[in-house]
Specification:
globular; 18 strands; Rossmann fold
């Protein structure tokens, strides 16, 4: 494994045009993996440590030795960060495949490195191949149900920043049921995290108490020593984001919603700020890719301003001198802090704007975070876990009991049966989920989204945003090739359910001219 790690680092150094040093923690993970019969690892390291290289190395190693696993499945919490990791993987390894709703690359997880979202991963492991939902729903085929599940069971599963999933009440119960199934079938699992609370770690240990090993960065690690020399000025303030932009440096503003990001971006343009870009989740993949490539080109520029949403929280390799962010739950804030002074910079400035609305976060989490930050902000260093771990634990739970609260158990029985019963085929699974949605009005996994076709690509919209565009004559809905002429608000939610379950042939298209600066706003 170590020789594979060296080759991956060499290639990464060539691409980045800077020497990428070995990480003691990463090498320890590789050694322990080879010595552990059924690995169930939790790897905790600060943002910027280079945890994604672990996935690349395991994938590269599988080409030479597939005795422990056939392939790697790298599971991300958000669709928005897949493109960045996939691009780097293709540059480093020469191969990578993405699998998510709307992607055309993969039917099953059969490539050496498969990058997917947690939603798609869960659909697939319960035998509902996301590429075949429509055919399954129409009972035309089973949609590779056992084969898709088997492609997961013979893989190494790497969950990247799983706290995003565990913080989601709709996903937590289902995710833990899937985790139990993986553990029982001795599937090797690795969690990569910068911000997992003590409570969540205790909760994960419940599912494989024997094999769970936790790896933490040690103070003698060169990365730790170097990062500890950096200085950060952190402030919790009221006011407008624009007021805190330093026009002579690299700035990133992170807003909690698209509408807030667009508002800030417009103010920045009105103010005449140079090199200003907007990035959010309601842009096409090509548009987002272009923005990220521009940022890579600008990374050594003296000044720029990126206005964005939480799409940059995890896995996006950009850095700034000055970070201005909306108040968010503690673990999200630590992730955002990873976008400032990420490289060789010696100083970083972080401004947390406290005047924000609750959405999309629970108000209790925001209030807890603000209270704890007010008490401990002076002692917090964004790269040193011992200075922020207590904050994470205080906000997100110190015990297993706290971490287990809020799990949506409505789908637990269906998911368990789908995972364990060989006679429970894909058509039965989809019927069970559909019936549960109808009976309880509780959506499966996250809030259902509507895939909007834009210039041959897909942008995911919430039902409320889709309805807003409908009222503005911005979208066309084709159901069984016939255009929908009327649609009430509640019908949009039903439309999202029908699309997710492949119940009908439904295509939603964008009618307006796509804005290659602002995206869909």
């Amino acid at each position: 494994m170590i020789p594979s790690y060296g080759k991956v680092l060499k290639r990464l150094s060539e691409i980045k045009k800077v020497e990428i040093e070995r990480r003691p923690l990463t090498e320890k993970v590789f050694r322990e993996f080879e010595e552990t019969e059924h690995p169930f690892f939790i790897v905790r390291a600060p943002t910027g440590y280079g945890k994604t290289v672990i996935s690349f190395t395991f994938a590269y190693h599988s080409l030479k030795d597939a005795s422990r696993y056939d392939r790697v499945i790298h599971v991300l919490p958000m669709r928005s960060i897949i493109e960045d990791i996939d691009k780097t993987a293709k540059e480093v390894l020469g191969f990578s495949r993405t699998k998510m709703m709307g992607s055309s690359e993969e039917f099953m997880h059969l490539f050496p490195l498969n990058i997917t979202t947690v939603d798609t991963f869960i659909w697939d492991i319960i035998k509902l191949n996301t590429k075949k939902l429509s055919a399954i729903r129409r009972r035309r085929e089973y949609g590779y149900d056992y084969l898709t599940q088997a492609s997961i069971l013979t893989s190494l599963i790497i969950f990247d920043e799983a706290h995003f999933v565990l913080d989601n009440p709709r996903m937590k119960g289902v995710f833990l049921e899937v985790l139990k199934f993986l553990s029982r079938n001795r599937v090797p699992v690795i969690f990569l995290t910068a911000t997992l609370s003590r409570g969540y770690i205790e909760l994960l240990k419940r599912y494989d108490a024997v094999s769970v090993k936790t790896f933490d960065v040690q103070k003698e690690d060169p990365f730790y020593r170097r990062e500890s020399e950096k200085s950060f000025d952190l402030r919790l303030v009221p006011g407008e984001h624009i007021d805190y932009v330093d026009e002579g440096s690299r700035n990133i503003i992170i807003a909690n919603t698209v509408s807030r990001a667009v508002e800030v971006y417009r103010k920045a343009k009105e103010k005449g700020l140079q090199n200003t870009l907007l990035l959010h989740g309601r842009m096409t993949p090509t548009h987002k890719k272009k923005i990220l490539e521009t940022l890579r080109f600008w990374k050594n520029e003296k000044e720029f301003l990126l206005v964005t949403t939480q799409v940059v929280e995890a896995g996006v390799d950009i850095s700034s001198d000055n970070l201005i962010t909306d108040l968010a739950p503690a673990n999200s804030l630590i992730q955002r802090f990873g976008r400032v002074a990420r490289y060789s910079e010696k100083f970083g400035n972080i401004i947390i704007v406290r005047d924000v609305e609750d959405w999309p976060y629970e108000r209790t989490l925001l209030m807890k975070t603000e209270r704890v930050l007010t008490e401990q902000l002076e002692d917090l260093h964004p790269r040193l876990p011992e200075t922020y771990q207590e904050i994470i634990d205080e906000v997100h739970g110190k015990t297993r009991i706290e971490a287990e609260k809020g799990s949506n158990l409505a789908y637990k029985k269906i998911v368990r049966k789908a995972l364990e019963d060989p006679a429970y085929r894909s058509d039965s699974v989809i019927k069970g989920i559909e019936r549960k949605i109808r009976d309880t009005s509780q959506t499966f996994l996250r809030d259902l989204m509507i895939p909007l076709e834009v210039e041959g690509e897909v942008v995911l919209l919430s039902p409320s945003k889709a309805y807003e565009l409908w009222t503005q004559d911005g979208i066309t809905v084709l159901q069984e090739d016939e255009e929908l002429e009327s649609m009430e608000r509640w019908n949009v939610d039903k439309l999202a359910i029908d699309i997710a379950l492949g119940k009908k042939k439904i295509v939603v298209k964008y009618k307006k001219e796509y804005d290659h600066e602002m995206g869909i706003t």
